Amino acid sequence: MSSNGYVLGHSQYGKAETHVVRVYRDDPEAPHDIVDYNVSVALSGDFADTHLTGDNAKVLTTDATKNTVYGFTKEHGEEARTPEGLALALANHFVDTVEHVHSARITVEAFGWRRSHDHPHAFVKAGDYVRTVSVRRSAEGVSVVSGVKNLTVLKTTDSEFHGFFQDRFTSLKPTDDRIMATAVRAQWAHEGTDVDWDASFAAVLDAMTGAFASSYSYALQQTVWEMGQAVLDAAPSVLDVRFSCPNVHHFVIDLSPYGIENNREVHHADDRPYGLIEATVKRSEDVDTTAAYDPGQAW
Ligand SMILES: O=c1[nH]c(=O)c2[nH]c(=O)[nH]c2[nH]1
């Protein structure tokens, strides 16, 4: 495994971002359904040879992993109605049927489509968030992490920010009334797989957005904590929830040079830089879901 004393560390490979759309049209009388997934496969295992010598004898091609995604989306149609179901089927397949694969990570972005005008086969893309899933299967078992990204929420009041630490670079003015907005990226790890994935996702989303709306905020950090607690209250299978929330700053524009009063009505929505508030809320101190979350290769 080593040459010149160098050592091959963790490696993984597979086809990233296979974009698959499945139509459910089995019953000619019934309205069609669709799912729309961007599926990434990452396999780890006995693959040192291909890195060290170029011997590909054990390499299941990334092309085959892509074809498996398409094939499974058809053959495992009922499981594929949820992104968790498809990801579990794929992860189990790669580990159970390819002996060189010791662990598989399947990540899915699920794009929503809403039925258009109650039409049986016309849809409008739902752009308000992307649902995400990361499933890891290894010899130790299987873990499922559900998530959401780009869930953009905003409230026009009930948000203050003051009393913060001062140093010589602190120039921010305290405020007792501001817009608070964020594009929530959250991931939550489940205990087990006996979960109604759609119902659980809906409960988590409702809890998060409800807590954002109803909690009075003295910092986005506090609101994240409120949202996390609401998620754990609403979804019994969730062990912990990890947030990464950009603080989308809204600055009140000074209109006085034009002789116009601005009573915190007109703002500049700044896209960058942004504060980034990240926190994990755990069901208890001894919850450790480290292996469930995708560390990626870039960290
Ligand atoms: O909710 C906030 N938290 C901060 O840590 C922070 N820092 C900042 O400049 N504005 C804000 N707002």
Automatic annotation (TrEMBL):
<feature type="binding site">
    <location>
        <position position="247"/>
    </location>
    <ligand>
        <name>urate</name>
    </ligand>
</feature>
<feature type="binding site">
    <location>
        <position position="161"/>
    </location>
    <ligand>
        <name>urate</name>
    </ligand>
</feature>
<keyword id="KW-0659">Purine metabolism</keyword>
<feature type="binding site">
    <location>
        <position position="161"/>
    </location>
    <ligand>
        <name>5-hydroxyisourate</name>
    </ligand>
</feature>
<dbReference type="GO" id="GO:0019628">
    <property type="term" value="P:urate catabolic process"/>
</dbReference>
<feature type="binding site">
    <location>
        <position position="221"/>
    </location>
    <ligand>
        <name>urate</name>
    </ligand>
</feature>
<feature type="binding site">
    <location>
        <position position="62"/>
    </location>
    <ligand>
        <name>O2</name>
    </ligand>
</feature>
<feature type="binding site">
    <location>
        <position position="62"/>
    </location>
    <ligand>
        <name>5-hydroxyisourate</name>
    </ligand>
</feature>
<comment type="pathway">
    <text>Purine metabolism; urate degradation; (S)-allantoin from urate: step 1/3.</text>
</comment>
<feature type="binding site">
    <location>
        <position position="62"/>
    </location>
    <ligand>
        <name>urate</name>
    </ligand>
</feature>
<feature type="binding site">
    <location>
        <position position="178"/>
    </location>
    <ligand>
        <name>5-hydroxyisourate</name>
    </ligand>
</feature>
<comment type="function">
    <text>Catalyzes the oxidation of uric acid to 5-hydroxyisourate, which is further processed to form (S)-allantoin.</text>
</comment>
<feature type="binding site">
    <location>
        <position position="247"/>
    </location>
    <ligand>
        <name>5-hydroxyisourate</name>
    </ligand>
</feature>
<feature type="active site" description="Charge relay system">
    <location>
        <position position="249"/>
    </location>
</feature>
<feature type="active site" description="Charge relay system">
    <location>
        <position position="15"/>
    </location>
</feature>
<comment type="similarity">
    <text>Belongs to the uricase family.</text>
</comment>
<dbReference type="GO" id="GO:0006144">
    <property type="term" value="P:purine nucleobase metabolic process"/>
</dbReference>
<feature type="active site" description="Charge relay system">
    <location>
        <position position="62"/>
    </location>
</feature>
<protein>
    <recommendedName>
        <fullName>Uricase</fullName>
        <ecNumber>1.7.3.3</ecNumber>
    </recommendedName>
</protein>
<dbReference type="InterPro" id="IPR002042">
    <property type="entry name" value="Uricase"/>
</dbReference>
<feature type="binding site">
    <location>
        <position position="63"/>
    </location>
    <ligand>
        <name>urate</name>
    </ligand>
</feature>
<dbReference type="GO" id="GO:0004846">
    <property type="term" value="F:urate oxidase activity"/>
</dbReference>
<dbReference type="InterPro" id="IPR019842">
    <property type="entry name" value="Uricase_CS"/>
</dbReference>
<feature type="binding site">
    <location>
        <position position="178"/>
    </location>
    <ligand>
        <name>urate</name>
    </ligand>
</feature>
<feature type="binding site">
    <location>
        <position position="221"/>
    </location>
    <ligand>
        <name>5-hydroxyisourate</name>
    </ligand>
</feature>
<keyword id="KW-0560">Oxidoreductase</keyword>
<feature type="binding site">
    <location>
        <position position="63"/>
    </location>
    <ligand>
        <name>5-hydroxyisourate</name>
    </ligand>
</feature>
<feature type="binding site">
    <location>
        <position position="247"/>
    </location>
    <ligand>
        <name>O2</name>
    </ligand>
</feature>
<dbReference type="Pfam" id="PF01014">
    <property type="entry name" value="Uricase"/>
</dbReference>
